[in-house]
Amino acid sequence: MALLTCDNLTLGYEGKEVLEGLSFTVQAGDYLCILGENGSGKSTLMKAILGLISPMKGKIQTGEGLKHSQIGYLPQQTLVQRDFPASVREIVRSGCQGRMGLRPFYTPAEKALADRNMARMGITKLQNRCYRELSGGQQQRVLLARALCATQKLLLLDEPVSGLDPMVTAELYSLIRDLNENDGITVIMISHDLRAAVNSASHILHIGAQTWFGTRDEFLGSPLFRALTAREEEGA
Q1: 141-144, long-range: CB within 8 Å, 24+ apart, which pairs?
Q2: Smallest Cα–Cα separation from 31: which of 220, 215, 223?
Q3: The domain 1-17+30-66+153-236 belongs to what CATH superfamily?
Q4: In which region does residue 182 sit, left (phi positive, over 0), alpha (psi from -120 to 50) or beta (all else)?
Q5: How does pLDDT run across 94-122, given as a tens digit for each residue?
């Protein structure tokens, strides 16, 4: 069974449809990049996958025993969230809360997991620093470490490099690709970056005026890719 299946999905708010008739599957180990214009419903789809909103029609199914609480999520940050006054260690450990239930403390195993993920993201030396004092790239590494504390199966990333400079962007994309290829973590990422999508993803989902789903190679040979590339060149 697929790790995630969306079948004839219609999503919206207050009776107004944003996405209609969307179907796709994500297998364990896939790297799916979701493309689309602003307002096309990309973030709405991610909220539905997380179980934060219910489909108006259709269904979302998870496989391999995956629960919503076991999905790692890196959302777009607001200005308020960037100014959050907690230590790096506290934020990373909070990724374990989905498995804690009513238990008010972290176990030694959960603390060790947080330590490993901080090391994995290269932020161990920052663990006592206040989150609000970090650069944008450092904050994203902290949030990735937090998301990894929630899952070893599926990461959802909503524009993870937004506002970062090109060097930091490349480093973050490399980390995400490494998590997918070497750690076997399935990745679903929303992006406006067409080049990053075709360089990293195994599969592409485009939503909006035209809906398209398939492998990266199929996407590269599609009229949609040629149209999007031409549009980027015109806007350059």
Answers
A1: 141/172, 141/175, 142/88, 142/91, 142/92, 143/74, 143/77, 143/91, 144/74, 144/172, 144/175, 144/176
A2: 215
A3: P-loop containing nucleotide triphosphate hydrolases (3.40.50.300)
A4: alpha
A5: 998 877 667 788 899 999 999 999 999 99
DSSP 38-60: TTSSHHHHHHHHTTSS--SEEEE
Closest listed residue to residue 62, CA positions, set 14, 5, 106, 102 = 5
Task: Please name the helix (run of DSSP H) or strand (run of DSSP E) that holds residue 74, with its range, or none.
Answer: strand 71-74
Which ranges of the chain would DSSP assign to H, the alpha helix? Answer: 42-49, 79-82, 88-93, 108-120, 136-150, 166-183, 194-200, 216-220, 223-235
On whether the CB atoms of residues 146 and 162 are closer than 8 A, the answer is no
Helix (H) or strand (E) holding 155: strand 154-158
Considering only CA atoms, give the Rg of the chain. 18
The Cα 162–Cα 153 span in angstroms is 24
Inter-residue contact 77 to 88 (CB < 8 Å): no
pLDDT tens-digit series, residues 221-234: 999 999 999 887 77
- Per-domain boundaries in the chain: 1-17+30-66+153-236, 77-151
Query: Would you say how long the chain is, in residues?
Result: 236
